[in-house]
């Protein structure tokens, strides 16, 4: 049995630190598919939209499968289409795994007791409906709320990424400035991870840390040398490859840089890019992002 | 258009402050249904389990529809059956609304930007797949993460319940003792609610506060006179009706006391209770809970 963190380190060493966020924003889909998503008010309309999302998801998967090690589907963007959307997500996750990708479900779940256990079953367990490799978690309910997921890190091959410091404008207030909740989360993660580190000194309990945090990013890197950082905010959301650099450890490992819209869709002012096929566009943008990140992941 | 808080106040005045948590714990279902939920490892097995959950959910709905004003389905317990489970939940929510119940989805969602918007669409919007009246939210991502939901409180007929102080053993550490994050959440809720209060002086932005918090409960009641309190922890989880009393305002309004397992299932040591039909058991236990709560909701 290979642990999640070993698989991730292997994949990142081979393919680079880019994680592609599989985010089917309906209003950004290529035009012929977008037109099928205009009626979300009826089960049949949602089913038709889910078919378009399915088609687009497979195009995206085909384009990125051999380019990156890991993808991060956003469950909310499938769930907004109801059970039809979730059925598509189940199929897409299965296809991604068959293509050799690690799948990190961006779900930001957090609950207690038997409910947390149900979420862990739903998202992580290999005999469950999604059977992902890892999941994002929200920590407000406290340390015990994460026990079912941490258990699956220790006993299974699974990983988690706990929200630590996010880069949205409102994140700092509750996480850092008025309540230092991020420091609590950091201590939990460090304690969970320490007994589970692999030969690279990295454990399966990672954190979500915004790529746009500037100097604060180094602080968290130093505080959590054993944790993988999932870093949103690169590209479309404002952080450069240089900004990402301090999220990596000196050996060039330990960071996953997420890009979603930046690699999946034509920018609004470059709609003409769809002269190339949607798959070609994603492949080209993925390669460009990987290239930009090379310097950030160089051992320093 | 009647606001969520007005509908809730009307319902609670008529039916009492009990909220029934619709939690299909597979291992607690009545035996003939439980036996259909043993294989969750294949799509067909999950579909069969979802059928059992559907049947049980309708039994429960029939038993409680005329007894209480509001139900709180736990989305995780449906999601563990994947898209088949979510399809059943969509049907159950629709049936509950047709029966005149308010539906509060226990989802504890929390994300940012367009993702938060997608969750709001998925759970609250009337033309969406679930179209609930209210939802529980987790606040770790900060004030801006809740904007799409608060907007639907102000402009629509919707409500939210933000996690404030939970009564699980690990809640206090991050919410109160080591990081006072609950105090931040309390200030947000108060600011959101103030411009939206109804003629009872209650707004659509409520909080989740454990019924087992003892004296701390009075503190939150005084700090948030305009907020509905959704209070888990009554009955099976340890709080008595007297413990719940300080969650109510002096006028006897402002608190929703949740009970899930306590009213839905036979206790393990009373398996013989299933000599009565599952529906009769739920009806009897719901009546008993309502009766026990009468004194707690008396104006004082």
Any overview of this molecule?
2 copies of one chain form a homodimer. The first copy, chain A, is an alpha/beta fold. Helix content of chain A is 44%, strand content 15%. Chain A contains 13 helices and 8 strands. In chain A, α3 packs across α13 (278-293) and α6 crosses α7 (147-155). The longest helix of chain A has 22 residues, at 43-64. The radius of gyration of chain A is 18 Å and the shape is globular. The relative contact order of chain A is 0.15. The model of chain A has no long low-confidence stretch (mean pLDDT 95). At the A-B interface, α4, α5, β3, α6 and α8 of A face α4, α5, β3, α6 and α8 of B.
What would a concise description of this structure say?
The structure is a homodimer of 300-residue chains. With 300 residues, chain A is an alpha/beta fold.
Q: Give the overall average pLDDT of chain A.
A: 95
* Helical content class of chain A: 40-55%
Give the beta-strand count of chain A: 8
Radius of gyration of chain A using CA atoms only: 18 Å
Q: Could you list the spans of chain A in which at least 5 consecutive residues all have pLDDT below 50?
A: none
* Proportion of residues in β-strands of chain A: 15-25%
């Amino acid at each position: 049995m290979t642990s999640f963190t070993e698989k991730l380190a292997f994949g990142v060493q081979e393919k680079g630190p880019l994680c592609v966020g599989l985010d089917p924003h309906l209003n950004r889909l290529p035009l012929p598919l977008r037109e099928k998503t205009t009626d979300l008010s009826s089960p049949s309309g949602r089913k038709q939209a889910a078919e378009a999302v399915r088609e687009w998801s497979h195009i995206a998967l085909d384009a990125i499968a051999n380019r990156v090690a890991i993808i991060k589907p956003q469950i909310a963007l499938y769930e907004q289409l109801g059970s039809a959307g979730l059925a598509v997500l189940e199929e897409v996750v299965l296809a991604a795994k068959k293509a050799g990708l690690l799948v990190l479900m961006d779900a930001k779940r957090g609950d207690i007791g038997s409910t947390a256990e149900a979420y862990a079953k739903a998202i992580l367990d290999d005999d469950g409906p999604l059977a992902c490799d890892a999941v994002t978690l929200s920590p407000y309910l406290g340390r015990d709320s994460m026990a079912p997921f941490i258990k699956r890190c220790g006993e299974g091959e699974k990983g988690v990424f706990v929200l630590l410091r996010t880069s949205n404008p409102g994140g700092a207030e509750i996480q850092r400035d008025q309540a230092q909740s991020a420091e609590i989360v950091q201590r939990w993660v460090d304690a969970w991870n320490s007994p589970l580190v692999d030969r690279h000194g990295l454990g399966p309990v990672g954190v979500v840390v915004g790529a746009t945090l500037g100097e604060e990013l180094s602080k968290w890197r130093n505080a959590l040398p054993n944790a993988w950082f999932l870093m949103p905010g690169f590209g479309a959301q404002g952080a450069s490859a240089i900004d990402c650099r301090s999220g990596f450890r000196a050996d060039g490992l330990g960071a996953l840089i997420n890009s979603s819209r930046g690699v999946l869709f034509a920018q609004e002012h470059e709609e003409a890019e769809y002269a190339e096929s949607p798959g070609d566009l994603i492949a080209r943008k993925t390669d460009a992002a990987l290239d930009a990140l090379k310097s950030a992941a160089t051992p320093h």
